[in-house]
Amino acid sequence: MSDKAEWQPLRDELRRWSEAGRKVKFWFRDDDAIEPTPALDRLLALSNRFEVPMTLAIIPGPTAEPLAERLARESRITATVHGWTHQNHAPDDTKKQELGLHRPQEVVLDELHRGFDKLKALYPQQFIPLLVPPWNRIDDALLPHLAPFGYRAVSVFGLAKQAPIGLINTHIDIMRWHGVRGGLPHAEIIGRLVEELQNRFDGNDEPIGVMTHHLVHDAVAWSFIETLFEETAGHAAIEWRPVGNFVH
């Protein structure tokens, strides 16, 4: 267990869950995998050390056999579709988006179809029919067209809303994306995590998703993941689940 005082609010909230005899479901999603890297090895080592299942959102266009071969021996890893090339097609003055209607809808859908088929072929044992839109953004008009390709759910950021396809969202982002890049201060992430736990205690049974990006982690980010697992893996109030448990 970490001896850092800043983690105490999380410990206190989990004690409340334990005393109530309740459990909360967590899942872990890491984005932008393309090929084997030392950073990916570091992430996988944490998964194995703490026995925490992880979902990798893999960019289908540029990925190939080397990543599939590296992951084939990893029993806790599942593969999901992360857009097509993770390329922004939105105007410069708007938020980045690959899966918008800035191009013909049939072009975008064709890429999503190809991405599904490519990763399903590369990962016959580990593939989950989940779409993770780059930048967590997808135009609502595309959602009704995903099921015929085989998709069963989409994962974006924030509490799930009504949608024509299942939503398995993330809620905790450990990175600071503006200004000085790197992991957010631990106390800030812990505060958000406690808020999500309090929301679930009050009746929302949505699994809490933690989102990471292994290729851009600094020491602060890596330290957060390791300490989070130290604090939660095996805790009586927490179940770390593979995302496949939630995709139907």
Task: Draw up the topology in text.
Layout lengths: L7 H12 L4 E10 L4 H13 L3 E5 L6 H7 L5 E5 L23 H18 L4 E5 L21 E2 L11 E2 L4 E2 L1 E2 L5 E2 L2 H16 L6 E5 L6 H14 L5 E3 L8
Parallel strand pairs: 1-2, 1-10, 1-11, 2-3, 3-4, 4-5, 5-6, 7-10
Antiparallel strand pairs: 8-9
Helix pairs in contact: 1-5
Summed up:
The chain has 248 residues and is α/β, with parallel strands linked by helices.
Query: Helix- and strand-based class?
Result: alpha/beta
Task: Give the biggest sheet.
Answer: 9 strands, parallel
Nearest-integer average pLDDT: 96
CATH class category label: Alpha Beta
H/E element order: HEHEHEHEEEEEEHEHE
The level of helicity is 25-40%
β-strand percent reads 15-25%
The rounded distance between the terminal residues' Cα atoms is 35 Å
State the helix count.
Answer: 6
CATH superfamily: Glycoside hydrolase/deacetylase
Show unreliable segments.
none
Shape field: globular
Number of distinct beta strands: 11
Radius of gyration: 18 Å
As for the number of domains, it is 1
CATH architecture: Alpha-Beta Barrel
- CATH fold-level topology: TIM Barrel
